[in-house]
Amino acid sequence: xxxxxxxxxxxxxxxxxxxxxxxxxxxxxxxxxxxxxxxxxxxxxxxxxxxxxxxxxxxxxxxxxxxxxxxxxxxxxxxxxxxxxxxxxxxxxxxxxxxxxxxxxxxxxxxxxxxxxxxxxxxxxxxxxxxxxxxxxxxxxxxxxxxxxxxxxxxxxxxxxxxxxxxxxxxxxxxxxxxxxxxxxxxxxxxxxxxxxxxxxxxxxxxxxxxxxxxxxxxxxxxxxxxxxxxxxxxxxxxxxxxxxxxxxxxxxxxxxxxxxxxxxxxxxxxxxxxxxxxxxxxxxxxxxxxxxxxxxxxxxxxxxxxxxxxxxxxxxxxxxxxxxxxxxxxxxxxxxxxxxxxxxxxxxxxxxxxxxxxxxxxxxxxxxxxxxxxxxxxxxxxxxxxxxxxxxxxxxxxxxxxxxxxxxxxxxxxxxxxxxxxxxxxxxxxxxxxxxxxxxxxxxxxxxxxxxxxxxxxxxxxxxxxxxxxxxxxxxxxxxxxxxxxxxxxxxxxxxxxxxxxxxxxxxxxxxxxxxxxxxxxxxxxxxxxxxxxxxxxxxxxxxxxxxxxxxxxxxxxxxxxxxxxxxxxxxxxxxxxxxxxxxxxxxxxxxxxxxxxxxxxxxxxxxxxxxxxxxxxxxxxxxxxxxxxxxxxxxxxxxxxxxxxxxxxxxxxxxxxxxxxxxxxxxxxxxxxxxxxxxxxxxxxxxxxxxxxxxxxxxxxxxxxxxxxxxxxxxxxxxxxxxxxxxxxxxxxxxxxxxxxxxxxxxxxxxxxxxxxxxxxxxxxxxxxxxxxxxxxxxxxxxxxxxxxxxxxxxxxxxxxxxxxxxxxxxxxxxxxxxxxxxxxxxxxxxxxxxxxxxxxxxxxxxxxxxxxxxxxxxxxxxxxxxxxxxxxxxxxxxxxxxxxxxxxxxxxxxxxxxxxxxxxxxxxxxxxxxxxxxxxxxxxxxxxxxxxxxxxxxxxxxxxxxxxxxxxxxxxxxxxxxxxxxxxxxxxxxxxxxxxxxxxxxxxxxxxxxxxxxxxxxxxxx
Length: 1009
Ligand SMILES: Cc1ncc(COP(=O)(O)O)c(C=O)c1O
Hints:
By secondary structure, this protein is α+β, with helices and mostly antiparallel strands. It has 28 helices and 38 strands.
């Protein structure tokens, strides 16, 4: 019989003198109540099941009292004594004698509800458990020495009940985990023992509120399973539940372990037992459920609640237990493979036979940079195709007079293009990039020799494209007899018959030859030579290239082959400085207000189409860089600029056809009377010139600008950029600048759906014009982006610009269209932003995408304005309009047309906007999705009625997108608009990837409003 709340309230009053309202808490066995007293103090009243033993309650109370004393900084539940000073007591409730005790209520929500579980949270959980166990080390209680089925030191029972699992594959899965446990079990009593909480599952761990980022592990509740057991069991249980549903469960377990180890250093045998114990805990859990399901057939809850445990068990089953062990050692700051450092020492002391006939120590050689940022290879993946790669490498070797090329160890590369190197089919799925061997590039047919004595472990032909081709692995023994291996890949087919498995080999004995493509795995001829400290039962499939996310682990598994080759260090190009060094140098050498994107800065070394690649070879989808209009490193633009740079690059004081050709092409894209071009190097220069043109033409100075606008970084442009002069460090608005409201039909005074919104916003410009007239002031002009970007990816209401231009022209001003962000087809339906408003400006300013990243900008104006500007003062820009810049600009126009990128922007943009609008319908925080073509924005708000901006969520979302490999940014006066304006080669699968990631992230705790 369940106790009712009024009984609980009575007990609280009589036993504790607390007048409180009681609310039952969920619980199967005991009666627990949440009590809130008049003064707001909250408690948990525990009325135990009549069969509970007092000793066990005493153990819990004493453990909590011990923790309150020895780890007071932990927010664990505190026992509140009765009025008589007892930690617990016996009282009559609902006709039975019940044990009653009271705890202070610990606020928080359970870990099970936390989405996502970032590394900081997992590590913090480890620290909490480690700190608690360190404090419990000095605690004992007779009742904690008990037999409990959840005790990981006694998990053997589960194997007897495997029969309850009906599905044979699942039964086998649980059995494998329990088999490994049985093998470990005899060693468990030898591990450190202590009293532990014993049930740090994801419903017993409390974490901080959803609005806190990163979330923190705050507390642990329910000490009902307290037991004396192997201490590491605590961590294993906590880690098992923390890893449920995580994208990389081993990494999650490693984070928890790292946190635990920081507070309570783990002993090596404990680390060695951890993975097996984690799997055993999951197996025990699923066996227990299967048994319950057998007793309660048809209860769907039992199977649903176990689904995550099965899924995790399956994921962990796919990881070699020794690999997991090494990863956990790494997390605890130990060398991942225990014997790897000693092996490296031993190898260094050997005097191996040469692996090639040429002496790699002395023969002339070229050490190649084949890294992600290799200038030799460039961004075009075509450079990695076998013949092209061979030509590059052999060309460089010929030029250096070398017959030997060397490819580096531990180098992240992007030449591994076959699906076998990818963790999934998506472009953003992690690809293996880090080379674990040394390549020796030389002509096919050259003999390959064993450097050390050993035996043949395997001979195989891995014939799949870009695999090893014919491969031989030799087994050796280091000084203390520990086995290790050397691997020889991309051999000739004759090698397959040269040695046989099991055969002994002596140093200097020929074991194979260098193979030729395509039979060698289809690579230019070379030997891939690798050392392997532990073959991990992988045989011929031991990887030669590792995931960068596991780089330290695989470096330990495969130490540097140069330990045996001895190529002089000075031959190697300087390694890429690590990201941290680049960041430090940048901080020391460059102005501090040169900003860096993202909480975790990126070091980008390569760009190709809509992708950017960091120094580890990780691909990122670029969804907000509008400069590489036709795609990063477009070969056509690259070639055009390179070819012209190799011929002539000088200023515009000589006749050259490139500049007139380009001016002709640009002018042809403009409506009459726009037809006179000026070329510059940046949009800031172009806007500066536009201001000068306006002033020269009108003889006036005053300008009307839009609120939140940005037009460039020069002094003159800061003056007309409210975003700057009104922002941090800004000096305020000069008297000659007049700010009109931004025609934002989502948050402005006139909203979407108001057919007259355009005219109403334009009326504010008319007001300024009237005021100036009344004050006797003239007007030079009006400048605005035709779709404000910095202002928050705004689309003007229909008719706005036409009205504004009418008012401005009536006052004698000129109309300047800043097309820097939106021009060149991005909008899909139109080539220029002003066309979407049906107007023709007097001056058009072009920049950013115009040269696809090559410094280039332009001003296009009318003959009349150009004539006014031609007032005797020479116009000259040293670099503006040089032949190289014009070649780049011409190539951009060619590519836009040939690849029909404006049409692509329209189709993909419409698709993406549809998807974003669907997201906005599903996620309260996404208040608005808007834009045209591939110029889109999602505005985040805390409240759809007040439109309170959610800048913190926007920042959270772009940082989470970055973690998922998608680069977006924020914009808008409140920094709450996610800007989406990718290179125009952006395709539908890219849109899908972005939409899926946004859908997930907007559902995460921090984004829920
Ligand atoms: C609308 C607009 N105009 C002008 C500029 C200035 O361009 P640049 O940095 O190339 O001088 C920018 C730069 O962000 C811009 O967004």
